[in-house]
From TrEMBL:
Gene3D superfamilies: Phosphorylase Kinase, domain 1, Transferase(Phosphotransferase) domain 1. It is found in: Cell membrane. The lineage of its organism: Eukaryota, Viridiplantae, Streptophyta, Embryophyta, Tracheophyta. GO terms for cellular component: plasma membrane. Keywords: ATP-binding, Cell membrane, Kinase, Membrane, Nucleotide-binding, Serine/threonine-protein kinase, Transferase. PANTHER family: OS01G0588500 PROTEIN-RELATED. ATP binds at K112. This is non-specific serine/threonine protein kinase. SUPFAM superfamilies: Protein kinase-like (PK-like). Belongs to the protein kinase superfamily. Ser/Thr protein kinase family.
Length: 377
């Protein structure tokens, strides 16, 4: 990754101002949160310039016309997703020259086009390039290039055929069959590996916006983390945390981060616990359509997670009992540990990966292959 990492403690500038907004992801809405809590100690004295970030990335600089051609002029029927940054379009480029090709030929790409009226802006766009332009891992979505021309800001990614984990978990559609228990645990393991890589990298990156809509799936249900607009460099030296504006999505953000603005790797661990609980239960973290007392998934489910007699109350009914009860209990216990109110009692992402790898090994030993399932009566 070269000399670019030498300035990582001086990377993308902090967000400014107060805002509260909603971003549509798939068929669900998430309330995003932002506050003005920020410490001057966290603001770099000499942040990396825009030119430094773009020059350090190993990405192709596309022209706007190239991406216009690749997406058939951003046709509405090419839209494959919507987010806080803008619309995502399906396109095609040549695998070697990266030039536009005819639809259905060459490499399929996802082109995210900035919505000027959206809640995310230039700093989030730069953050994506800053991190994904330098970090490479099987469980991080691959960023191929970008376009910065006049007032056009676009990002070009590998295309993830199965869309987001959020859609598969929560959208009721003939296109989205309920995910099996083993596929859910595979997705959880892949995502955990992605977070562990970020925490262990030279940059000590804190992802800050881990949620099911940011976990994308390829044709084999391999999971990759996407959307690095809110990522931040972790604490350096003898620092215990990074003080920053509170940004993220309601329900997923760690309580100590919401209270103080102090961001650590354990903040990501809490968010992972929320997502793991969503995968176990098939419920959204915030769902006002649920009966009173069940609107907040974490508050409702926590008492059941370590109770062997009551764990079935949390399990997704759409699994129809096709899971090993012992495995379900251990996964629920892992979610409980990740959701500890005091961050010092949460495991590290390395420890989370170790538990999920053990569960994966047991499933393969029991079923003879990774995507089978057993039904406990």
């Amino acid at each position: 990754m070269g000399a670019c990492w030498s300035d990582r403690s001086k990377s993308v500038g902090t967000h400014t101002g107060l805002k509260s907004y909603k971003s549509k992801r798939g068929d669900g809405e998430h309330s995003h949160i932002s506050s003005s809590k920020v410490s001057s100690a966290s603001i770099p004295a000499t942040p990396r310039s825009e030119d430094q970030i773009l020059q350090c990335s190993n990405l192709k600089n596309f022209t706007f016309n190239e991406l216009k051609t690749a997406t058939r002029n951003f046709r509405p029927d090419s839209v494959v997703g919507e987010g806080g940054f803008g619309s995502v379009f399906k396109g095609w480029i040549d695998e070697h020259s990266l030039t536009p090709t005819k639809p259905g030929t060459g490499l399929v790409i996802a082109v995210k086009r900035h919505n000027r009226d959206g809640p995310q802006g230039h700093k989030e766009w730069l953050a994506e390039i800053n991190y994904l332009g330098q970090l490479t891992h099987p469980n991080l979505v691959k960023l191929i290039g970008y376009c910065f021309e006049d007032d056009h800001r676009l990002l070009v990614y590998e295309f993830m055929q199965k869309g987001s984990a959020e859609n598969h978990l929560f959208r009721r559609s003939a296109h989205f069959r309920p995910l099996s228990w083993n596929v859910r645990m595979k997705i959880a393991l892949d995502a955990a590996r992605g977070l562990a890589f970020l925490h262990n990298s030279d940059a000590k990156v804190i992802y800050r916006d881990f949620k099911t809509s940011n976990v994308l799936l390829d044709a084999n249900y391999d999971a990759k983390l996407s959307d690095f607009g809110l990522a931040r460099d972790g604490p350096i030296g003898d620092q215990s945390h990074v003080s920053t504006k509170i940004m993220g999505t309601h329900g997923y953000a760690a309580p100590e981060y919401l209270a103080t603005g102090h961001l650590t790797a354990k903040s990501d661990v809490y968010s992972f616990g929320v997502v793991l609980l969503e995968m176990i239960s098939g419920r959204r973290v915030i769902d006002m359509n649920r009966p009173p007392g069940e609107h907040n998934l974490v508050d409702w489910a926590k008492p059941y997670l370590v109770n062997k007699r009551k764990i079935r109350r949390v399990m997704d009914n759409r699994l129809d009992g096709h899971y090993g009860l012992g495995q379900a209990q251990r996964a629920a216990n892992l979610a409980f540990l990740c959701l500890a109110t005091d961050p010092k009692y949460r495991p590290s992402m390395n420890e989370v990966v170790a538990v999920l790898e053990q569960l994966s090994s047991e499933r393969k030993d029991h079923n003879g292959q990774p995507n089978g399932g057993t039904k406990e009566g």
